[in-house]
Write a structure and sequence with these properties.
The chain is an alpha/beta fold. It is built from ten helices and 14 strands. It has two domains: 160 residues, Rossmann fold (3-Layer(aba) Sandwich); 122 residues, Riboflavin kinase-like (Elongation Factor Tu (Ef-tu), domain 3). The structure holds flavin mononucleotide and adenosine-5'-triphosphate (ATP). It comes from Oleiagrimonas citrea.
Length: 316
């Protein structure tokens, strides 16, 4: 069981201490996973806890006047950190108080007092604390004083470029799913619970599993060929999905993910599904009427089948 903490007060790890890493960890890309694997490995060698310290909301989103798209929801991040073998996750509230905290105080209060760090692993260019005043050199200096070792993880690169959450957001915004997948080390996907829709989709010939994304700012918009995993273990089910505000029917205040699975006729309300994005087919459009929308949905479904390498429907 991974333990989760949301505040900075008081010690929380076993007396032996911990091997710890710190960062935003949005998307858990190849760089993050290499770092977390090293933390797990070193914690096993020392016989102590493996701890990840992260922040919510994402620091970048806290500071940006523009909405910053997220690669993963908070829940997906926590699941990913657990799957990477973290014994404990400190998910600190990224608020004014935390941004005002000088780097030295973060080291003393959080790394030393709260998680009793024996080793701290970060990427070599990692910055932290008020006005990004803390860097690797500070960790080394303060580690010598407080009895922990600062360790720099070699930067993970693909095609000579540093793997980063920002680079993945950009690749997705450009529709370059292949590049995003290379940086992530797996295809980009979103998970969520299926809720009931207006049931108009089935009258149009395209029943959809509707997955609300809450206030999450998504890095994608449009119509996609997708593969869907169900909680019962069935995976890679082919389909076509729309992620948008549905301007034709009734414009929604928040984007909704809707997936139509091919040759599938089951109730999956309430199930948590994972939608993997394979190809961006087009942007969302406002049609004059539902007939025009259905003509386009037929084209989308055919294009998605082709993109997924499945035979076209007879007579279509
Ligand atoms: C393949 C596909 C393409 C879609 N394209 C658009 C679109 O371009 N514009 C739009 O307003 N809605 C689009 N939608 C959303 C439909 O309007 C929506 O699925 C329909 O209203 C059914 O809603 P319901 O699931 O709440 O019944 C698309 C849906 C699918 C499955
Ligand atoms: N490519 C990488 N190789 C090794 N470590 C990395 C890499 N990218 C990030 N890290 C480290 O992982 C931790 C979490 O990184 P964080 O999510 O804050 O940054 P990021 O992935 O570079 O995202 P952003 O693009 O938003 O800055 C930090 O310690 C960071 O230095």
């Amino acid at each position: 069981m991974t333990e989760l903490h949301r505040d900075v007060a008081g010690p929380c790890v076993a007396p032996g201490g911990s091997v710890v890493t710190v960062g935003a960890f949005d998307g858990l890309h190849r760089g993050h996973r290499a770092l977390l694997a090293r933390v797990r490995e070193r914690a096993d060698v020392l016989g102590v806890e493996a701890v990840a310290i992260s922040f919510e909301p994402l620091p970048r989103a806290f500071f940006s006047p523009e909405p910053v798209p997220r690669l993963a929801s908070m829940r997906e991040k926590l699941e990913g950190l657990r799957d990477a073998g973290m014994d404990r996750v400190l998910l600190l509230r990224f608020n004014r108080a935390l941004t005002a905290m000088p780097a030295e105080q973060f080291v003393r209060d959080v790394l030393v007092r709260r998680v009793a760090a024996r080793e701290v692993w970060v990427g070599g260019d990692f910055r932290f604390g008020h006005k990004r005043g803390g860097d690797f050199a500070l960790l080394e200096r303060m580690g010598a004083e407080h009895g922990f070792a600062a360790r720099a993880m070699p930067v993970q690169q693909i095609d000579g470029l540093q793997v980063s959450s920002s680079a993945i957001r950009k690749a997705l915004a450009d529709g370059d799913f292949a590049h995003a997948g290379r940086l992530l080390g797996r295809p980009f996907a979103m998970s969520g619970h299926v809720v009931e829709g207006e049931k108009l989709g089935r009258t149009l010939g395209y029943p959809t599993a509707n997955v609300p994304l809450g206030r999450r700012v998504t890095p994608l918009q449009g119509i996609f060929a997708v593969r869907v995993d169900l909680p019962d273990g069935r995976s890679g089910l082919p389909g076509v999905a729309s992620l948008g505000v549905r301007p034709t029917v009734n414009r929604l205040p928040q984007p909704l993910l809707e997936a139509h699975l091919f040759d599938f006729d089951e109730e999956i309300y309430g199930h948590r599904i994972r939608v993997e994005f394979v190809t961006h087919l087009r942007d969302e459009e406002k049609f004059d009427d539902l007939d025009a929308l259905v003509v386009q949905m037929d084209r989308d479904a055919a294009a998605a089948r082709a993109a997924l390498g499945i035979a076209p429907v007879e007579g279509a």
